[in-house]
Amino acid sequence: MSSLRFADDGGIDIQRDVPTTLDDVEVLRRLRREASSWFSLSPAEFEAIFAEDALDRCPVMGPGARPFTLP
Question: Do 4 and 10 touch, CB atoms closer than 8 A?
Fold first, then answer.
């Protein structure tokens, strides 16, 4: 995987580059409990999170991609 290779090449060191304290972990756990699931959002709430042209700026599939189907 490219992410592992990047990490192996010294591009990122989780211990050094992403320090996480016990307080950080507690806040993340609290936010996880309090935050709604994506699945519980109404379509209007979901659309309000993203800019109207978000998929145009960052498409899900590249221009030459073919949809994948199982045989």
Answer: no
Domain extent at residue 46: 20-55
Total tally of structural domains belonging to the chain: 1
- Tokens 């994948």 found at: 68
Where in the chain does DSSP place strands (E)?
A: none
Per-residue pLDDT in tens (0 to 9) along the chain, 71 residues: 445 555 566 677 777 788 888 899 899 899 888 887 878 888 888 888 888 888 788 877 888 888 888 88
Query: Does residue 46 contact residue 38 with C-beta atoms inside 8 Å?
Result: yes
Q: How many CB atoms lie within 10 A of CB 7?
A: 14
* 2 lies in some domain: no
- Measured between alpha carbons, how far is 58 from 54 in angstroms, rounded to an integer? 6
